[in-house]
Design brief:
There is one protein chain. This protein is mainly alpha-helical. It has one domain. The chain is built from 10 helices and no strands. The termini are far apart.
Length: 245
């Protein structure tokens, strides 16, 4: 009799439902972070391999020191892959999306290899670990906070569009003060976006109506979002913490 009453207790049913959703969200986020970590490992390994081998990295430049055709392809191809992955979300299978994501991470490694020509290896590694620590703190905050970050996410996205426009304008102006302001804002924006994206992914992961294939697709897209947050935060931090050669 007691078991029957306990089974029908609405509080217990609510707690059971919450526990189930929480477990699903954790499983989903585990996949997201696994995909992200794999992509970052590929990017880091390729960047280090090319960036520390002058024979390899010289393949991206011509005799005058400017970028050759391969260098421009390596620089701009990642943008194309992001657009392709986003546009193909509904049409491509999760296997194809994952393959494109891993190829994208390889191309990003080639693109980022040039930072070894500008900054010392020790400052690059130091900045990477600081970025990783910052990412971990903000990810935990985004997962555990009870505050709805949706409105902050909207503000951060508008601010991101603003610094992209400002960065393009500053390419032609070459204003050092504007570059500093953009760098500071970039660090703040991507630090906030990490918490926002993790909270958003936690909510997505709690949705039990998704099938296995759609869940994998969403996990890959979530990994791409967090990957971009991490890489951009790293690059903005490198402007402050990186020791130039």
């Amino acid at each position: 009799m007691e078991n029957n009453n306990l089974f029908n207790d609405p509080i217990q049913r609510t707690e059971s439902s919450f526990t189930g959703e929480n477990a699903i969200a954790k499983s989903f986020l585990s996949n997201v972070f696994a995909y992200m970590a794999s992509a970052l490992t590929i990017t880091g390994a390729i960047a280090y391999w090319f960036g520390t081998d002058m024979d390899l990295i010289s393949m991206l430049f011509n005799a005058e020191g400017g970028m050759n055709a391969l260098g421009y392809i390596v620089t701009f191809a990642p943008f194309g892959f992001v657009l392709l992955i986003s546009a193909g979300f509904q049409k491509f299978s999760s296997t194809v999306l994952l393959g494109l994501f891993l190829i994208y991470s390889l191309l990003m490694g080639l693109s980022l290899s040039t930072i070894f020509l500008v900054y010392t290896g020790s400052s690059i590694f130091t900045t990477f670990f600081i970025t990783a620590a910052t990412f971990a703190v903000m990810a935990v905050l985004g997962y555990t906070t009870k505050t709805d970050l949706t409105k902050f996410g909207s503000i951060l996205m508008m601010a991101l569009i603003g610094i992209i426009i400002a960065s393009v304008v500053n390419i032609f102006m070459g204003n050092a003060m504007m570059d500093l302001i953009i760098s500071v804002l970039g660090v703040l924006i991507f630090t906030g976006l990490i918490a926002y994206d993790v909270q958003k992914l936690k909510r997505i992961g709690s949705g039990q109506e998704y099938g296995h294939e759609m869940t994998n697709k969403l996990a890959i897209m979530g990994a791409l979002s967090l990957y971009l947050d991490f890489v951009n935060l790293f690059l903005f931090m490198l402007r402050f913490l990186g020791d130039r050669k």
